[in-house]
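Case study B.
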Amino acid sequence: MSETHRSGSDGPLAIICGGGNLPLAVADAVSRSGRRIVLFALKGWADPASVARYPHHWARVGQFGRFCRLARAENCHEVVFIGSLLRPSLAQLRPDWATLRLLPRITALFRGGDDHLLTGVAGIFEEHGFRLLGAHDVAPEILVPEGQLGRHPPTERDSKDIERGLALIRAIGPFDIGQAVVIADDRVLAVEAAEGTDGMLARIADLRGAGRIAGPGRIGVLVKATKPAQDRRVDLPSVGADTIEAAAAAGLAGVAVEARGAITDDLGKMIRAADAAGLFVVGVPARSREPA
Amino acid sequence: MSETHRSGSDGPLAIICGGGNLPLAVADAVSRSGRRIVLFALKGWADPASVARYPHHWARVGQFGRFCRLARAENCHEVVFIGSLLRPSLAQLRPDWATLRLLPRITALFRGGDDHLLTGVAGIFEEHGFRLLGAHDVAPEILVPEGQLGRHPPTERDSKDIERGLALIRAIGPFDIGQAVVIADDRVLAVEAAEGTDGMLARIADLRGAGRIAGPGRIGVLVKATKPAQDRRVDLPSVGADTIEAAAAAGLAGVAVEARGAITDDLGKMIRAADAAGLFVVGVPARSREPA
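Model:
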């Protein structure tokens, strides 16, 4: 499938870039594969220095009409969304005319969780003639692989915490909620919702500082996985060296992510960070997520 | 059943008092019913002024031998735990001799969630000849009743959020996790785990302050309910005027608690706080928690 996507038969690939290093990682990978790309950099999110390395246009969140016009002029038919973008509020949108006409529908999409919003936005792109691809479809090298990734292995206790975390993520899947939980010694310490993974890990660090999490030494696992209903084209969870550092600051023993269900901008850097901090990092096979 | 408990045939009731106003509310209610009580006040948690109003002993968390000795000398056979007590760390315990002998077992109880810990501790009391009762068994007036409790009714949208919140609490029940969630306009904003309800509501206030929760005006509901597996004798969720104030500070529209599944030290004060702040407060029938 990725061969087809990389063939270039559909013109250059439009990459809509949010924040972080993932957009450049994807742009580099697709570019290496020989396909032309055009970046659509989101103002306030995308990194100008990275964007400058490729043909690009700047746009604001909400300028859907501008995107359609420019992408068609560039002969782009396939689109990838990649990079961080905090859920904007409706009030923060600066809609252009095309977006304004869609506003009643967009307002309805804002009622509900992230999946609901993202899947709806994806649908709008498709209706306007763009084919939406997952970043991992065009750049499979960003997917986290399976197995023990760093030097440190999880203990048996850690492995039990990982299983419990995956089961919890499965149970909350229908509620279109965060993709991460923290489990320590069979106890659920945190469930991610609107605060995001960084916010959740900062909370664990605070609780530990206040003596509300027992035990000396590193304990607990950050578990990240896709939700059952997730549209993998627009919302795979991402991890990186910063995730490892936040987990280390929270006193955790390691990080487990669903193999091929999470993406990273720099696997090597993430592994080096884990090795240096003494944390394990593992890619957990998706089959662990099947109901027992 | 409560008649039996209030008969006094089993000697005075031992009330182990944690923090907050609930211990005094329970002591007053049982005392009014004519049964003698002896308070066992936990140092660092129980309020000295309240405790002084009844026959009492002070003890530290972990002085199980001291409790057994004193309770037997007072001819107490029935015990109630009531009041707040943050999960202590094992290191914070100052175990006496009886507790030391139980330490391997207590250490095992500390592995896992609150239910696991509390149910295990309850079992230890029972094995030593004490009958453990729920505070609401001896003082049913502390249970939150069913129906619209204040002046403000929930909107239809709020009612949908309440149903979603109850369904989510049911889904996470097997994971021995917090008893509260926040839902706003069908979106799950927060799930309580180790941080407690106050910590969760403070987080919502922060997210709102940072513009990460859309919309002007009050929106969202705090939903509190018992977990399916919860030992109701030791761990019913509690709410009060402070809960309303924290929900108001988080910008929520109201608070929904499971009727007869949550306790309060002062229902009238809680309702007045809700009316004054413009929030609704409702007791939701337990039948709403049945699977659809």
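Confidence is low (pLDDT under 50) at residues 1-8, 288-292 of chain A. The remaining cases will be described in the next quarterly update.
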